[in-house]
Amino acid sequence: MWTHLSYSTLHIELQNLIKLAALAGDQAPVINSNTLTVSSMATVEMEDFSDPQLWVLIILMILGGEVFTSMLGLHFKNARANTDYARQRRLAFISRDIESSDVFNNSSQNNMEGIQSEATMTDNQVQEHKEVNQNSRNILAHVVAGYFIAAIVCGSVVIVICLWIDSNTRDLLKSKDIKMWTFSAFTAISSFANCGFTPVNDNMAIFRNKPTFLLLIIPQILVGNTLFAPMLRLSIWALGKVSKRKEYAYILQHPKEIGYRHLQTHKNSVCLVLTGVLLILLQSMALCYFESDSKAFEGMKWFQKSVVSVFQSASSRHAGETVINISTLSPPILVIFALVMYLPSSTSFFSTFGDSQTLTDKKESPNSRATWEKFVITKPACLAIFIVLACITERKSMSADPLNFSIFSIIFEVISAYGNVGYSLGYSCDKLLKPDATCRDASYGLVGRWSDEGRMVIILVMFLGRFKTSTLKRKKNLNVHPCGSPHQRAAEVAGN
Predict the structure, then answer these.
(1) Is the confidence at residue 476, as pLDDT, over 60?
(2) CA distance 4 to 413
(3) Chain mean pLDDT for the chain
(4) How many Å apart are CA 69 and CA 260, to the nearest integer?
(5) CA 423, 429, 430, 431: dihedral to nearest 10 degrees?
């Protein structure tokens, strides 16, 4: 957790420096640029960014994505483990040489030869197991890196092909001075990293009548977060079938020993897929039932409505990309979206055999936890506290503009920030109780109208949501001989 926290803090400071340099002379975004790479809760129009600035955001989205940060942590962990493993091997060889000389000088030749060979066999098995484990971890790090690169490259190429075929969209981007390759790379990386941004102000609304394009983006959204763990396991299985290397089989059979939190067992992976598909289907059916004739789906045919419903449902977990104006949706749909946004990507509604807990509820035994850890406040309680703080900071706006700053809008905004989704009910000048000629509707969310104190609350909520899957782990002492010392093993063999 601390490595992840340190990396994210350094990442945020890097974003601040780059954004201040890139937007010199312009009005910089008020919310920390971490929102641009995680929660997509922007406070500026996306079309205000120039092409170089869009590429800066592309790099930042890559660095801030869940897959990249977990991959970076895996490489750091492997580097440290490789160093420890090399030190353990050296100590093991030295210990073995000492024991061999002791046995040769102080023991009877016949009995101790058998004891020594058996102890050596045990040592060899332990070393072989450790070597396979370490090699498997290194291979997994390369697999995750390959998965990351392949997803981004394939997604970018698919979008380029779609734009090349669709001349209308290509002309629209040209009229907005957005290059085709920039748009393709930006959209593919944003979808994969679940950042929820596109270079245009209307997000994905320009593709609302292009169901084929939306169907191609849906897998890009899912493989980058919700279905990353199952797809990673599937990739490892496929590579194992092709290469026939034993390390791939070891990775699949011992995910806990590998120590990568996105590597799940077969049963858990199936549960994640079932949960993800079920949530998408439930949201899609609810959208089609409640909103089929609403303003949000106006002018669409039944197939387009179905595809838009599926896309919006897949995006509501973490991606935050929008095809329709969600502020026009009915309250039941908004409540469903709020509930779904709260759930982390590792949520499973199905329990494995002999396990009645979901993947996110599994914890170590309370007896093994430190006393101070037992008093940590729960995440729902934290959310409730932040909602109250947001209401306090925005109390003047809630009194003067109750339709835009309703209590549900505040709750929705906070939950969206916690889930790192970026959905917002927006701000409409038509909802003002007293018409204001200077009021201007903007494409960014309601947070753009909040006070500085309220924005700080949202930033803290995003940090809480960013680390909601992290847990504190105590370091284990270095154990050179996991199976006991040579003297102990020799004594055990002699006793038998």
Answers:
(1) no
(2) 25
(3) 76
(4) 12
(5) 70
Q: What percent of the chain has pLDDT over 70?
A: 71
Token reading at 43: 């406070």
Tracing tokens 């959310």 back to the chain, one arrives at 383
Kindly list the distances between the CA atom of residue 256 and the CA atoms of 207, 303, 344, 458, in Å, as whole numbers in the listed order: 42, 43, 20, 35
The token duo for 331 is 């309250």
| Calpha distance 5→475 (Å, rounded) | 17
Answer for the pair 327, 428: CB distance below 8 angstroms, yes or no: yes
Contact present, 343 and 317 (Cβ < 8 Å): yes
Take residue 250 and report the two structure tokens written for it.
């070891």
More confident residue, 123 or 371: 123
Higher pLDDT, 429 or 9: 429
Q: Is the separation of the CB atoms in 316 and 423 below 8 Å?
A: yes
pLDDT digits (tens, 9 = 90+) for 439-463: 877 666 788 788 888 888 888 888 7
> How far apart (Å, rounded) are the C-alpha atoms in residues 203 and 187?
10
- Is the torsion defined by CA of 31, 37, 39, 42 positive or negative? positive
Q: What is the DSSP letter of 351?
A: P
Q: How far is the C-alpha of 124 from the C-alpha of 118, rounded, in Å?
A: 10
Angle, CA 413 vertex, CA 411 and CA 419 arms, to 5°: 100
Q: What's the pLDDT at 166?
A: 87
pLDDT at 425 over 70: yes
Q: Domain map of the chain by residue range?
A: 376-466
- More confidently predicted of 17 and 330: 330
Alpha-carbon torsion angle 453, 458, 464, 465, nearest 10: 180
DSSP collapsed to 3 states, 120-185: HHHHHHHHHHHHHHHHHHHHHHHHHHHHHHHHHHHHHHHHHHHHHHCHHHHHHHHHCCCCHHHHHH
